[in-house]
Structure formats: C-alpha cells, structure tokens
Amino acid sequence: MSIWRYANPAEFMRLTGWLVGPLWAVAGLVLVVGLVWSLSVPPDYQQGTTVKILFIHVPAALLAINTYALMALASAIGLIRRHPVSFLVAKAAAPIGAAFTLVALITGAVWGQPMWGTWWVWDARLTAVLIMFFFYLGYMALWAAIEEPEKAAELSGVLCLVGVIFAFLSRYAVNFWATLHQGASLTVQEGQRVDDTYRLPLYLMMLGCYLLFAALLLTRARTEIRLRRARALRQRSAALAEAAQEGATA
Amino acid sequence: MIAWLTEDPHAPYVLTAYGATAAVLGALILFSLRANARARREVAEAEREAGRQ
What we know:
Helix content of chain B: over 70%
Distance between the termini of chain B: 64 Å
Radius of gyration of chain A: 22 Å
Number of strands of chain A: 0
Largest interface: A-B, 38 and 32 residues
Number of helices of chain A: 8
Helix content of chain A: over 70%
Number of strands of chain B: 0
Largest sheet of chain B: none
Largest sheet of chain A: none
Oligomer: heterodimer
Order of helices and strands of chain B: HH
Structural class of chain A: mainly alpha
Order of helices and strands of chain A: HHHHHHHH
Distance between the termini of chain A: 50 Å
Number of helices of chain B: 2
Radius of gyration of chain B: 22 Å
C-alpha cells in the first residue's frame, strides 16, 4: 500500500478526523503540567530565576527550525509529486512556525538582557533566526498575494526552499562560528548535561509544545482542505449556472 | 508569589517572557480555531448551494 494515498484530501480528512480532538486534549494537559513544573524549579546558581525562561525558549526555538524543515520537505514533495495536500500542509505550518520563531526571539531577548547585558547581538545564530522569521512572513505574504492557488503554491514552495539555508544556519551556526549564543545544551554526555532538576521539566515542555504544534498543524491543514473544497464547489456551481443560462438563451 | 515578584530582580523578565508567549500562542490558537469554524460553515454552505442545483 502506497503512502501517497494519504495525500488524497478525502483520505487525509478521514484519517485525521478522529485524531485532532484527543491531540488538543493531551497537548493542553502536558503543557499545564509542564508549565507548573517549569515555574516551580529552584533558581539556577548562575542564571537565578531567568532559567525559567528557557523552558519556553528552547522548545520554541526547536519548533521554529523544525517547522521550517517540515515546510521545506512538504514544499519539495509538492513541487516534485504535485500532491495538493503537501502544499496545504506547508501553508498551514507557516503561521505556526512564525509564531514559535517570534516566541523564540522575544524570550531570547528577554533572557539575554539580564544574562548577557543586551537584548540583541548580531551574532550568526540570532541573525539567521531573524532572517528565517522574515522568510516565514514572506512565504505567508506570497500565498496571500497570488489569487490563483496553484501558482501561489508553486511560487511560495520555491521561496520556502530558498530559505532552507537560514533554517540550517539557525541550527548549526554555533558550530561554524564563534557566537555569543551557546552551543547545544541538551547533550547526553555525562558531566556536561543539564541537571535533571531542569532537564526533565524541559523535556516535558518540549513534548507539550510538539503536541500543540501537531494539534495546530492538523487543525490548520483541515481548514485549508475545507476552504479548497468550498472553492471548488462554488466554481462548479457557477459553471453549472452559466451553462444553464446559456442553454436557456439558445 | 507576591514576595517573589517584589524581591527577585529577574521576576519582570520571567513574567514578560511568559506573558508574551501566552499572547502569541493564545492568538495563534484562537485564530486557528476560528478559521476552522468558518471553513466548516463555508463548506456546508457551498454543499447546500451545490445540492440546490
């Protein structure tokens, strides 16, 4: 059985229909527990209580980058295999990715002021994330600016693929250049990893944010498919009405 | 909580970060659910129109 059958809008709606409600419920539950746990951790010996900001900054930054990667993958599949659901999934993911990128930028700046002594520095990682945010905005603007959906899907898909370099740099810039932003903190190496006091609530918040992302993505993708169906039905009704009018005048 | 707000110099930063996150994600969730409800209505309406013809 081919996986491409899931690219059929009717099949996608049928498969995701039973999943959306439970996903919202589980995401809400995990996030509530994660938030309570995150806000009740003891102050870090260096960062003080600003460590609590990282429980939202780290999941938001991860989702900002991974959502762009998902959009690029969906756009590439859409451009190569011409599956309409792929383009719609990329379109549905864009506002979610933009929102998480904005959260990562805001929380990063708010954490940076007391810890680094500045709200912002033009280092490689921060700049790459900012440019990625502009690519998110550009992608959504392009979809909105072009009336013909097929053309909008193709052009915004190409734009999305162009911006992949900044998603890649957002993730790996700390490995290529000396940046003020630290490297990976969630290492598994003993002696270097974050203490369990902070690591476990962070993992829970990451899980909660990924579940929220999944619930939002499915909801938004289903919205796009519904709007596409409504548009198709209206076009068919208009064509039938026009044909009937021509038949009456002939 | 009140003691933490008044005594900890970092409390305004933590509150700002959590407040901004709640505002951004809250707006995203609200707009997504509203758009979904509107799309449902549009499909139902279009299906009714198509059924009449």
